Every structure is written in C-alpha cells, then in structure tokens.
Amino acid sequence: MGGGSPVNVSVQTITVGSICGYGVDGTNIEFKCPDGKVFSKVEFASYGDSKGKCGSFVRGEWFAQDSTSIIQNLCIGEQTCHTHVGGTEFNLNMVGSDGSRLAVQLVCDWYDPKISKEQRMKNIQEEIDNEIANQKGPGEGDPYNGFGPPE
C-alpha cells in the first residue's frame, strides 16, 4: 500500500494486549498484533478531531459515526490491518475538516485457528450483550457503606 508520510503516524503499545495508533489525514496506518494473536476488540476508534493519548482517547466535537465499525471490519480476527486515513475511507467529507485524524485502540488476543472470523465476531457480540445484560441498575449491587444514611 503506497502513499502517505510515516512522519505523522504513531503507533504505541500500552497494557498487555492493547495496541494504539494515531494518524493524520493523508497518511496510512498499520496495526500489528504479536505472533499468535489477532485483534479481538476495538476499544476506541474515531476519525475526526479526536483528542487524548493511548488509553485515554476521547472523541472531539465532530467525528465519523461509523469509525468503530469500519475498524472492526478491517481488523477483528486479523493479525495485521491497515487503512488510509481520510474522509473518503471513513465517510466523512466536511468543509473545514482539515486536520482530521484517526485515533484507534485495539486489543490483541490469542488466536484459535478452529474458530472462523465470523464466529469470533459472534462470540465478541455475545460477550458484549452479556456484559450489558448483567449490569446492575440503581439500587442493586453492594450494600451502602458510606458515612451517614443513604439518600
């Protein structure tokens, strides 16, 4: 894949299994898991005026709504993935969007060659659905241990 200057791209590894990357408009960015691992989760993905650093990225005032799904489709189940950083790739073509950038944080996990990419995606979705279903609502959970009566 040609084009783009590597000068404005950074890739950083944080906690075990997390890979981060940050690229500006017009560059190419590539992510790679260690041998034997593949990308299993997109912790953050935003093309627009994202801010922050690896482990604490936040969306800015404007961003491409489908950034996460685009990165999921490119990376989940793969050991390496790459994309050109630009409005065309992320379906965001705004006047005055100069200075757009892509911030991504991915998780690498052990690869099981017996499980297809589609099954891994299904397993990830089920895991997310279970986490949501098992979240405790107001008044549920640990007993009150504060000072004074609960309000």
UniProtKB/TrEMBL annotation:
Transmembrane segments: none
Pfam families registered for this protein in UniProt: SUEL_Lectin
Record domain SUEL-type lectin: where: 23-109
Location of region: Disordered: 124-151
Cross-referenced InterPro entries: Lectin_gal-bd_dom, Lectin_gal-bd_sf
GO-annotated molecular function: carbohydrate binding
Protein name as annotated: SUEL-type lectin domain-containing protein
Origin species: Trifolium subterraneum
